[in-house]
Amino acid sequence: MENTFETVRTLIAEKLEIDKATISPDSVLTEIGLDSLDTFDIIFDAEDTFGIKVPTPKEEIKTVQDVATLLDQLLREQAPEGPATPAQAQR
Amino acid sequence: MANTRRVVITGMGIVSPLGNTVEEFGLNLMQGISGIKRLETDFSDQLEINIAASADFDGAQHFSKKELAVLDRVSQFALYAAQQALDNAGLDADSMDTNKTGCYLGTGMGGAASTEEGYHRLFKEGQSRLKPFTVLMAMNNAAASHIAMHYGLGGPNLTYTTACSSSAIAIGEASRQIAYGHCDYMLAGGSEALLTFGTIKAWEALRTLAKVDEQNPAASCKPFSADRSGLVLGEGCAMFVLESYDAAMARGATIHAEIAGYGTANDASHITQPSVAGQARAMQAALDNAGLAPEQIDYINAHGTGTPLNDATETAAIKQVFGPHAYQLAISSTKSMHGHLMGAAGAVELVATTLALQAQWLPPTMHLQQPDPECDLHYVANHATPQHVRYAMSNSFAFGGTGGVIILKKS
Fold first, then answer.
1. Residues in chain A closer than 8 A to B70 (CB atoms)
2. Which CATH code for domain B7-250?
3. How far is CA B350 from CA A72, B93, B179, B355, in A?
4. What is the ipTM of this complex?
5. Which candidate, B288, B290, B266, B279, places its Cα nearest to that of B320?
6. Is B340 assigned a catalytic role?
7. Which stretches of chain A sit within 8 Å of chain B by CB?
8. Which residues constitute the domain of residue A18?
9. What distance in Å separates the CA atoms of residue B15 and residue B149, rounded to the nearest whole number?
10. Chain B neighbors of A41, CB-CB under 8 A
């Protein structure tokens, strides 16, 4: 879903303090400055934002789109714990 | 120290309740200005003793969001002070053999805020997950590790935790890495950032915190005064660059002071109550290491916490070690101004001691208004004093009993 990518892109841009226009679905996480721990941190923020729980990913997460796809899959599987509004996020 | 290299201080950096540069810290220190004040936080009204010596330090001014995501306040202090120390020493990663440069750092509670934030999330907010970086921010060795990573320092990297003497031990042990020729340079010091709700409540429970001086909260810490009632918690960091005397001379570095001796000993008696014999052993060990007679020490920057027990015990220990000379030398506790920085105390006070040697002025013990028969030595009360000082001693003692004493020589 486009919105999920957009949210992930915003989270990454805020964390790295870069222009989000420089982040595309194909952007490789390590190439834009996110190591595996940083990626977990982004997923942590996404869990709050979407009100879902992300288990340890089985598939390799390489690109920004991989993160968005994982979240979309979980959003379909899990009933959100609450409305997915920024106000709900407890960071 | 026979058959070893002379060790000198060529760089200093600081984050403290008296300022975040060595110059500002020194000016405030010599003017007797206190950094102790009422805490203004969201938990202030839940504290019984609502004063502390906080550092005016906003990490967002110095680090990116990505860096802040992994740096507890304790590590932010350490990185900021380390950069100052290297700049002050005229060194950078390109001018050092980084594999022969190490970092020893002391801290009492490491990333206390990160630990507490984790507990808050779990127990108070009822959340089921913690931030992925929680362990990495909270662990005691994080600060020293970040310094190593930032500058690529491949030499020894150790974190000492001996409560209030942590950084004195770190600096003393680091000096041995230089003295024995294992390293070219050592970054050494201590960092502490424990002004969190849970930590302050734990200290309240211990009943060692000073009562608030309602007339003047800044004067609540009164070391060696008969009306002293305890210590005031503080936060901050000081880092030093240590190298050999010969290397410093060869590269034309400014030598701030020489580390003439270091000693450590344990009270081996009680988890909190200090022991005259234990403190005396640590001071004697430093004198022996320096090869000095007690009469050669002109000034002691005391541990001087402001608790009834410490100050009387330390006074008695000084008398035991120095004999009649105890009444000749000058002693001051700068904790009266910057508070007790716990794991960073020894480092920040070693900056104060170095400045005393450089300026030939002794920083005062502030708020000493009522003489105590048990504390009857010369404590440089309430005003900085010019004095010739060749050798100065910095004392750090601790819960758990480990004392760390460093002797500096004027360069």
1. 37
2. 3.40.47.10
3. 56, 25, 18, 8
4. 0.75
5. B279
6. yes
7. 14-17, 33, 37-38, 40-41, 44, 47, 53, 90
8. 2-88
9. 20
10. 69, 131-133
Strands B361-362 and B385-386: antiparallel
How many alpha carbons lie under 13 Å from residue A64 in its C-beta half-sphere? 24
Any catalytic annotation for residue B164?
Answer: yes
Q: Kindly list the residues from chain A whose CB atom is less than 8 angstroms away from the CB atom of residue B69.
A: 15, 38, 41
* Nearest Cβ partner for A37 among B65, B125, B133: B133
**Length of chain A (residues):** 91
As given in the structure block, the two tokens for residue A33 are 């400055």
Which residues of A fall within a CB distance of 8 Å from B127? 90
- Could you check whether B7-250 and B261-410 share the same CATH topology? yes
CA torsion angle B212 B214 B216 B219 (round to 10): -30
CA nearest neighbour of B237 among B9, B11, B14: B14
- Per-residue pLDDT of chain B in tens (411 residues, 90 and over written 9): 457 999 999 999 999 999 999 999 999 999 999 999 999 999 999 999 999 999 999 999 999 999 999 999 999 999 999 999 999 999 999 999 999 999 999 999 999 999 999 999 999 999 988 999 999 999 999 999 999 999 999 999 999 999 999 999 999 999 999 999 999 999 999 999 999 999 999 999 999 999 999 999 999 999 999 999 999 999 999 999 999 999 999 999 999 999 999 999 999 999 999 999 999 999 999 999 999 999 999 999 999 999 999 999 999 999 999 999 999 999 999 999 999 999 999 999 999 999 999 999 999 999 999 999 999 999 999 999 999 999 999 999 999 999 999 999 999
Kindly give the pairing relationship between strand B299-301 and strand B257-266.
unpaired
Contact criterion met (CB < 8 Å) for A44 and B136? no
- Was domain B261-410 assigned CATH 3.40.47.10? yes
Of B64, B131, B133, the CB nearest to A17: B64
Q: Give the CATH number, domain containing residue A77.
A: 1.10.1200.10
The total domain count for chain A is 1
Domain ranges, ordered by start, for chain B: 7-250, 261-410
What is the three-class DSSP state of B270?
Answer: coil
Say yes or no for a CB contact (<8 Å) between A17 and B66: yes
To the nearest whole angstrom, how far is the Cα of A3 from the nearest Cα of chain B? Answer: 24
Among residues B303, B338, B367, B375, the one annotated as catalytic is: B303
* CB contacts < 8 A (A, B): 29
